[in-house]
Amino acid sequence: EIVLTQSPGTLSLSPGERATLPCRASQSITSSYLAWYQQKPGQAPRLLIYGASTRAIDTPERFSGSESGTDFTLTISRLEPEDSAVYYCHQYGSSPQTFGQGTKVEIK
Amino acid sequence: QVQLVQSGAAVKKPGSSLRVSCKASGGIFSSYYFSWVRQAPGQGLEWMGGILPLFGRTSYTKNLQGRVRITADESTSTVYLDLNRLRSDDTAVYYCGRGPMTYDARGYSMGYSDSWGQGTLVSVSS
Fold first, then answer.
1. pLDDT of residue B1
2. What is the CA A71 to chain-centroid distance, rounded?
């Protein structure tokens, strides 16, 4: 089973700042099958990125994904107040699929 | 327009069984992958398992193997999650997800979810 590690657990940043959210996989992920989700309180997850770097429909351009080996990163170029949420990485390259434990982004 | 509508909240006793349904509309049912993900109070997301209705293929997380079963009924475009021998730590919001199958050298596999149901709160308590 692939373990995804997201650290830190919480990021506290100001509007307009850049947010960098890492996700490290315990082993190689087939075909860059890594997705990022945003979840706000009381809501279902929302897909932001799939294939490590492809934005989903309706994902704002300020969100981008990248990979380097087993390290994946979600970057929010300029934080907006509505970006306050928990962000999860998710690998779907091997079974069982797994999620990271999430990074909470707080807007100061 | 994609829509996934889940069954309502449930309160269950320890040791009992649970069935949650997820009715899909929009698109061709069997051309998608369906997943079940749960979230315990204040915790993160846990992938429970998934199904490819086109092939009748399922996969489950090891933590739940033996207690969980996912099925699909193409005639009603509904996916079901069955969980038995319920415990208090099964208390969670259960989400169904739908997304594309992946296709590569291995053939068709389970992918990510780009649409989600509204969630079903399940409480397990004596």
1. 84
2. 12
